[in-house]
Write a structure and sequence with these properties.
92 residues; single chain; mainly beta; globular
């Protein structure tokens, strides 16, 4: 099963035109940041996720995912509820 979360366009951090996207599958967590042409994608195996933290702001929250190998994903501009749901899915 796959879960897909898209950051709010009104959160700032460059999300107005190209919102951050997190996709959680049975095997990977995938971070996508769209660009004018194409997108940048970072993929981490769920078994390699070392830690997940949520940085809450006034209205929105950021998700910080660190792998055991040192890769870091910082996805910005999610609602607080979505951020908690993402963290819960990755901590299972």
């Amino acid at each position: 099963m796959a879960y897909e979360f898209t950051a709010s366009r009104v959160s700032g951090d460059g999300n107005a035109v190209f919102p951050d996207k997190l996709i959680i599958t049975d095997e990977h967590v995938i971070y996508r940041k769209s660009r004018v042409i194409g997108y940048k994608e970072t993929k981490i195996r769920l078994s390699s996720v070392g830690s997940v933290s949520v940085r809450q702001h006034l209205l929105f929250a950021d998700i910080i995912i660190e792998s055991k190998g040192g890769n870091v994903i910082v996805a910005r501009g999610f609602s607080r509820g979505e951020a908690r749901e993402i963290a819960d899915l990755l901590e299972e």
